What does this fold into?
Amino acid sequence: MKVLTLSSLLLLSPLALAKDISVKVQGMVCSMCAQGIHKKFSKLPEVREVKVDLDGKLVHLATKDDADIDDSKIKQIITEAGYNVASIERK
It folds into this structure.
């Protein structure tokens, strides 16, 4: 008899396959900056959710299911918006 543990069920969950990405952005200082970045990342088919923390200068991205976004694509979007990427962290 097989027993499914809670951790096994979580691994089978679609959200468990999603990735959380935090991007530290230099130069983002106003709400218009945050809205522009939010809009650009929201258009990506890989992105499930975007949260911009203006005070912390962070962009939090959650990808859909098995999707991912290359660091180079993240840097390109931020750079083209007029800002610099200080760091990218994946969880």
Summary: Confidence is low (pLDDT under 50) at residues 1-16. The chain has one domain: 6-90.
